[in-house]
Amino acid sequence: MDKYANRPAGEYNANYTRNLKIQGALKLVVCIFIAIVCLLPIWLLIVNATKATQDIIGNASNPLARLIPGTNMINNIKTLTSSKNGNPEFLRAFNVFYGFRNSLFISICACALSVFFSGLTAYGLTVYDFKLKNFSTTFILLVMMIPMQVVSTGFLQFMVQIKLYDNYIPLIIPAIAAPQVVFFMLQYMRSVFPLDIVEAARIDGCGEFRTFMQIGLPILKPAFAVQAIFAFVANWNNYYTPSMLLLSGDLKQKTMPMMVAAVLNNDKINDIGAKYMAVAISIIPVVVIYLFLSKYIIGGVTLGSVKG
Amino acid sequence: MQSLKPQGRKSISYAKYGYFFILPFFIVYVFFMIYPLINTFRLSLYGNGGSADTMVGFQNFKWILFGGSRPAKAIHEEFIRSLGNTVILWVGNFVPQIILSLLLAVWFTDSKVKIKGTGAFKVIMYMPNIITATSVCGLFLILFGNTKYGAVNAMLLDMGTITEPVRFVDNVTSSRIIVMFIQTWMWFGNTMILLMSGIMGIDLSLFEAASIDGASSGQVFFKITLPLLKPIFLYVLITSMIGGLQMYDVPYLFHEGAGQDAIRKQLETVAVFVYKHFHLTSPNYGYSAAASVILFFITGILGLLVYRFNTSSDDRAAAKSNRKKSKNSKLLGGF
User: Fold this and answer.
1) Can you give the pLDDT at residue B81?
2) Has residue B46 got a pLDDT over 90?
3) Could you give the CA distance from residue B251 to residue B266 in angstroms, rounded to a whole number?
4) Alpha carbon distance A114, B35 (integer Å)
5) Distances (CA, A) of B303 to B35, B145, B300, B316
6) Residue ranges of A 43-72 with Cβ closer than 8 A to chain B
7) Is B331 within the bounds of a domain?
8) Chain B partners of A201 at a C-beta cutoff of 8 Å?
9) Is B155 part of a structural domain of the chain?
10) What is the CATH number of the domain that holds B214?
11) How many structural domains is chain B composed of?
């Protein structure tokens, strides 16, 4: 039946390995193509951010010239930042310093709070036995998938009522209650945390909170690192909540994504090179962080995240 | 003295510490999620704009779901359109995304045909996911700009394919395709890694047995990989649906010009509908809240499915380890 049945074994093997090699090569080509599609928009962004507007819109003799960086980078940065020769429309909508400061502040605070308190909650739910333990765990798993968008109307109205809008508090404090991070920490603790160590600490007279700080935290460190990266990136990329709550439109208060959005939807800005530069400035830090931490990020993806 | 101590210790209850440890989470959650949720339900029963303090019962739901006279008809059409857009944009990004990521996941985990540089490919393909959606949207917006300022238009003009710039952002079909492409571009790496972890969880001996029996790679894929991948596939599907219902940043920002009239009607999703009504126009909390409540029930049903997925896999693991334990103890007992 086998079409190779009457052939010598060596020929079969040679054919087989050759087929595998050809298959591998074809698949590699497809993968390279997909990788290029992934990188091309980012490459175009970097290229165009270094060009003057007339070079971007002007007719190029060779279409490939559009893929080579220009020489106008410094000028584009100046247009965005310098108060002397900058574009007033740009300066009203975009400020690199404020953008980074605000986004960094919110992201770092929210990230620290969410990782620390999720660790605390997961620790409490793993180490101790109490009446509402199962109820609380079930509750956290149940509400894990409820997104901010669903409650945003009531949230905004409530924040306006208690005058907490135009304020970073409702952007930072809710990070304490992050069901997804708790879920991840719970999984992690169940698999690695030795409960006997808590007992040992008690016998040595260590207080419960101190046990968490000095024994629980170090053991949870790997989980903390992965979740911290994700929490930071999620907060850095968040546009929905800040744009909903920071109503005043004060440039000093805006986060980076809000500034990018303001630049994009401003039809008075015709300096395309500088527009690309604004987007590039907002992307590059995240890309650099990603390239350094990609190992941890990709390892952590499988451990629970809402996607689009 | 020593013998007394452990007894004394046993009577100490540590339960209260459990409550202390989980208390901050629940206080904040109730204040920033549960109360706002209740508040959303409450607001959905109140009027809009000038009549925000009047209780109107289920009128908002009736209007946005079933329409009626003039004002009701307008809001009804807008809501149904936004639901339709959400479905179109979600399907349009999920189908190519799942096909692409399934294909790549199978390739990258294939032990027979090894692809060089799998690690680097994973890093590159996941990268779009990490970038701010706002910036990604901005990037595509200037690349596909309506006028000759857009890079794609400029390139096409260079090559002489077109003589007039194409209005990519305004055109219904092209703008939807671009948004679908952005979503696929951003999320296929994530899905691919999830599916890869699913495939790597499949018992290797099954693949070996199949290859000894002379199964083709197509047979292996349809008879082994796909059926065993079903749970993680479902998880990806449902989380993606929930994510799709929240789709906001890209559809909201993908337009040229300022103001709420500039928002492209063909891209207005449910999340954009909610945001637009409580924010940009005079506070129409009623409509937003009613739409949010509907969204909540859809998400709730989907979320329950994910919950079942998470717990059932946990339970299975627990049952497995119990069985192992009892097996071991039997063995030990036998000795």
Assistant:
1) 92
2) no
3) 9
4) 20
5) 20, 38, 5, 20
6) 44-45, 48, 53, 56-57, 59-60, 63, 66
7) no
8) none
9) no
10) 1.10.3720.10
11) 1
H or E segment at B165? none
Q: What pLDDT score does A1 carry? A: 47
Our CA-based measurement puts residue A98 at a distance from the nearest CA of chain B, in whole angstroms, of: 17
The winner for highest mean pLDDT among A158-172, B43-57, B141-155, B250-264 is A158-172
Mean pLDDT along residues A216-233:
86
Looking at the domain assignment, is residue B256 inside a domain? yes
The string over B80-113, giving b where at least 16 C-beta atoms fall within 10 Å of a residue's C-beta and e elsewhere, is: eebbebbebbbebbbebbbebbbbbbbbbbbeeb
Question: How confident is the model at residue B25, as a pLDDT?
Answer: 94
Distances (CA, A) of B285 to A24, A165, B80, B290, B299: 57, 16, 18, 8, 20
**Which superfamily is assigned to A89-301 in CATH?**
MetI-like (1.10.3720.10)
Q: Which two tokens stand for residue B168?
A: 């990519």
What ranges in chain B are assigned the alpha helix state H? Answer: 4-11, 15-29, 35-43, 59-66, 70-109, 118-130, 133-143, 151-159, 172-200, 204-212, 217-220, 226-228, 230-245, 249-253, 270-275, 285-334
CB spacing of B257 vs A267 below 8 angstroms: yes
Residue B137 lies in a domain: no
- Cβ-contact A111, A228 below 8 angstroms: yes
Domain around B216: 35-118+175-316
